[in-house]
Amino acid sequence: MAVAEANTKTMKVGGVEIEVDIRGTGKPLLFLSSEEQLENASPLVDDLAKKYQVIIPSAPGFGRSPRPDWMTNPDDIAYVYLDLLATLGLNDVIVVGFSLGGWIAAEIATKDTRRISKLVLVDAYGVKIGGPFDVDIEDMWVLHPQKVAALKWHDVEKGKRDFASMNDDQLTVVAQNIETFARFCWEPYMHNPKLKRRLHRIDVPTLVVWGENDGLTKASYGKAYAGLIPGAKFETIAAAGHFPHIEQPEAFAKVLNGFIG
Amino acid sequence: MQAWYFTEMPYPHLPPLDTLSTMRVSLPSKHFDPKIGADLYNRYLDEYMVADDAGLNLLLNEHHQTATCIDACAPLTAAILARQTSKGRICILGNPIANRSDPIRIAEEMAMIDCISRGRLESGFVRGVPYEVFAANSNPTQTVERLWEGIDLCIKAWTTTDGPFNFEGQFTHKRAINLWPRPLQTPHPPVWITGSSDLENIKRAAARGIVFATFLQPHTKVKWMFDGYRGSYVDTGMPGGGGTSYMPLVFVGDTQEEAEKGAKALTWYLDAKSEPQYRNPPGYVPVEYNVQALKGTFTGRTDAMRKQSLEYLKDQGVLIYGTPDDVAKQIRRLYDLVGGLDNLLMMMQAGHLGHEATVKNIRLFAKEVYPQVKDLPRTRPLNAKVAAE
Question: What is the pTM of this model?
């Protein structure tokens, strides 16, 4: 997998500069990438762009978006994206978020759904389900990288990235993404303690999709997460880990299209 | 030149290293036998007292969740030594202020130690080595910012003597800060800072007149950092007057064979084992370094000195060992190679090096070597303002 090419434009929303990639035409679909932005260069985006106007922003500090010092967590990013939808004047937006992007999507939908028609969360972080001693989300910074890869992928081979083939600009994006992920999600680890108490506010049709073999955030966590969102549907994808849309693109597309229509 | 005795207080009684994946962060504490630990703490404190008695200054540090250093709380050790010694200066290098939630608590601890020691404290501040962010759970992407905010607040707390002030910073919020006690040294104890690669941060310390220290680096890199420091130094009236400090491993023997044996024991420290995620947590080093890491050309800060021969380490100035005259010669060589050195910080105990050998090392150095290097002139850090005039 490579880093997506820089065929993007820079926008200023609410005083914050972000890069935004807009592909295709049709109903608007806000595509919120995972922390690794792996899906930005995947066939999934091309397929969606045949039917939708796919809007792919890089969150502050990710991709080539600068990271303002005052931002401390994904909650801040959610406001930037609400400003983005307003700036673009979009309505009836389908919001699809992967992993960290799923967390941000959930934050957005707890704040304001006036411009949103549907919500899809894929193996999202963001809430604390268990007690203080329960590991809801495996600690990907304390565990050995090989262990983390084994937890993240059903088939570890599919997650291997060929850094040797990347140029310095692409590697800078990879390194920047790793750093920013830690900046925003180090503590509280991978969750906003308030989010669980706000999910009841989500009033748009919601689908929660999970890789059946996700070892980082287990399917039981995903099911509990979905249970906190009124009326949310929960679906699992077999033979897939934390990135079911990459490991099982066809099965994932079927579930996604079945929901967004 | 001032000489400082140092041990990191290792706990070396571990299962064979090839059966462990790491000595840091996640090594279960069942491998720590508190009875052995009790003996070790008392022994290491005795050795500090021997060093004090022999005329050396005393250097302490702290680390967490690691068998390489069981001094998990340097202010406690410093407080003991403040009471049990009487001559040497006591330097904590340092307080991991980027990893402690309350800088004012550190300011209080230092003020107390300074009073108990009757003004012998030197207060170092460190951002903490990479693996420390796990035990402290401090965000690895902001340790430099936390370090400076903490130092500024500490100094402000030490020097504000006319009643309380509030502080609402990026990382710390405190109200009615009003330190009791305040330090004995006026306006406050000398402040030290460490660095290993971030030249901008070293220059920042120099511009404020803070003492600079670096450890176990090749002499060319030490000179690069010292030159950067000296070129940016401004005499701001900071206590201690600034200065450069470097730590090699040091062993002095009556014979070359004895010295080699001791030196070999000290290199235990360089072979400390750790897992990769602990060596480079996300955002601890700048993005440019991590681009190199992704290419496989940067693997962490201390790898350059791993698994090297004694001769190589000696040539680099990382390991100084031999008979007294030979050691003095090596120190003078190092002094010249790095463009002058004000504080020689000596790790004279590490790994399995026992009590008798450590005491002998300390005494031989103090008696036979120190007199030969003590008068090496204090480097006068360039005062940039004066030089410009």
Answer: 0.94
